[in-house]
TrEMBL record:
This is Rieske (2Fe-2S) protein. It comes from the Bacteria. Keywords: 2Fe-2S, Disulfide bond, Iron, Iron-sulfur, Metal-binding. The lineage of its organism: Bacteria, Pseudomonadati, Rhodothermota, Rhodothermia, Rhodothermales. Its cofactor is [2Fe-2S] cluster.
């Protein structure tokens, strides 16, 4: 039968374990949870105008969410597809929302720039880096539009 752990033994054990736990947490930083690519994203609801089928995303620009990119200046972050969509002067463009620096999810569009809050990288509406630390452009996707119907294909 084992002896109950004394407070002193527990504290010694905890004391030797805590630095490793702290080291793990500090190394993982922002990359480990909320801002990283998340495979448990909720699919867009019916009526949103967003349908995801494998590597293809279909937009119906009359839908409640998809209509955000119906007009110039519009922006849409599709979390479940890790995708950024923007309307630039009537042309719809789409990019991966995974930051090329360390993989955080980009969900913000400010002053015509995609902004990564992890370390401050900014990307233009062509996906190119405008401010580091990222050095590589966002991955661009193929966009085909027919009126209010948009098909985006991840390549
Ligand atoms: S992950 Fe570092 S700036 Fe985006």
């Amino acid at each position: 039968m084992s002896k109950p752990t004394s407070r002193r033994v527990f504290l010694q054990t905890a004391g030797s374990t805590l630095p490793f736990v702290s080291l793990f947490l500090s190394l993982s930083g922002c990359d480990s949870y909320s801002s990283m690519e998340d495979d448990n994203d909720t699919p867009p609801p019916p009526g949103s105008g967003i349908t995801i089928e494998g590597n293809t995303v279909f937009l119906d620009l009359t839908g409640s969410e998809a209509r955000k990119v119906a007009n110039p200046g519009g922006f849409l972050h599709i979390d479940a597809a890790d995708m950024l969509v923007v309307n630039v002067e009537g042309t719809i463009r789409a990019f991966s929302s995974i930051c090329t620096h360390q993989g955080c999810e980009i969900s913000s569009f400010q002053n015509n720039r995609f902004v990564c809050f992890c370390h401050g990288s900014q990307f233009g509406t062509d996906g190119q880096v405008l401010q580091g630390p990222a050095t590589r452009a966002l991955t661009a996707y193929t966009v085909e539009r027919d009126g209010n119907r948009v098909r985006i294909t991840k390549s």
